[in-house]
Amino acid sequence: MEPRRPAERRSLARPATIGVVAVATLGILGFGYATGFGSSPEGSPKPVAVVTTSPSPSEAAPSAPDASASSEPTASPTPTASPTATPVPTAVTVPAPLTGLPVSKTVAMRHPIAVMIDDLRAARPQSGLSSASVVWQAPAEGGIPRYMAIFAETVPKDVGPVRSSRYYFIAWAAEWKAAYAHAGGSPQALKTLRAKGNGQLVYNVDEFRWGGSFRRIKWKFPPHNLYTTGPQLRKLAKRVGATDQAMDAVWKFAPDAPLEARPTGGSIMVKYLANTINYKYDRKSNTYLRSVTGESKQKDESGGARIAPKNVIVMLMHFGPLNDGSKKHRLEAQVVGSGPAWISTNGKTIKGTWKKAGLTKPTQFFDKNGKQVTLTAGQTFVQVMPYGSAMAFKKGTMPASASASPSPTPTPKP
Q1: What average pLDDT does this structure show over 203-229?
Q2: What is the mean pLDDT of residues 257-276?
Q3: Which CATH class is domain 102-394?
């Protein structure tokens, strides 16, 4: 399915004592996966002091009863009704289209922004990867990999180093008609962006045109030092026409599996020409802790967060030389079609199939029975590997307490 485009009471005074009652209102926090989180008002109401007036001297001691006083009982004052607690509205949330996480409707409508990010050793560590909803990684020149991070519900502080465009990355960004940020590109990619970069495939955000929104940092050398920020990218997206609007999810998501259903251990390894990536499954956080060549614990340079997606997908694709006359050994890939895929989530890996029916159609993943897989709500890394790549999947083990089945209770005889 292609994403869709472009809710005072008056108290009776008592004769001797005046009471002011303070009522504290407690907001109830509600949670539902499909409907999201509720919220309580900020802060708590301050208690109001109870003020009591003392009786006057003439009232301190009762006087002798008056014989002429009526013997009829005096009517008691009408009791004061307690104030009614003001109901606290529950915040309305919806699943974010790219992650399935509960967010506000406004956040869910943010237009996706795709950014090309360098992965040569000189570029590491990168900024922004921990904030991305989805990260694609595929080989570029000579098999050296490159990232494309797609940002939606989270606006990162820094993003970079920003690098140039390739056609097959445009095809993945086109699945969301993303605002596509890059610094130049291959002749094939630039030609495509000139012809279809005004919303037909993506919205072209080229640093060559929008240079004022990018900067060169001093602690890395060119071309591995071009950076931008999330707020700048959001402004650029609006300027090029990538307006916020409701979008449909193309992947299926579910909450984390319960702890007792998750295995211990397990790992994934994939190898590009200039980078080997390892994931180690962490049962407690239900994430895949990522490491790369030169970084045993890959972290985001902006903030230091560990790169640890909820889902890892490895897919095989045909790559070949582009032969664009540049002699730079650029590649092209068969992005439309199908092929084998390994989907890892909740600590378990299944082998299935990836399918992409058209340039702007979503890449989707299916199990061996042809049923669309369900991912865990959160970030997804997609590792696109050429056929023949080295890769390995190590299965985790279920804890004894989780794998042991209780003995069936015998049915009593009548």
Answers
A1: 96
A2: 96
A3: alpha beta
- Two tokens, residue 136: 């694609």
- Can you give the pLDDT at residue 85? 66
Please check whether residue 142 is in contact with residue 93, taking contact to mean a CB–CB distance below 8 angstroms: no
Measured between alpha carbons, how far is 31 from 82 in angstroms, rounded to an integer? 30
Location of structure tokens 């307690």: 82
Distances (CA, A) of 35 to 103, 296, 372, 375: 9, 38, 23, 18
- The amino acid sitting at 188 is Q
CA pair distance 101, 95, nearest whole angstrom: 5
Measured CA angle at 399 (ends 393, 400), to 5 deg: 135
Rounded Cα distance between 117 and 74, Å, is 86
pLDDT at 405 over 50: no
pLDDT tens figures, 139-170: 998 778 999 999 999 999 999 999 999 999 99
Query: Within 10 A of 394 (CB to CB), how many other CB atoms are there?
Result: 12
- Global pTM exceeds 0.85: no
CA 366 – CA 353 distance, rounded (Å):
5
**Binning pLDDT at 50, 70 and 90, where does residue 33 land?**
very low
* Domain ranges across the chain: 102-394
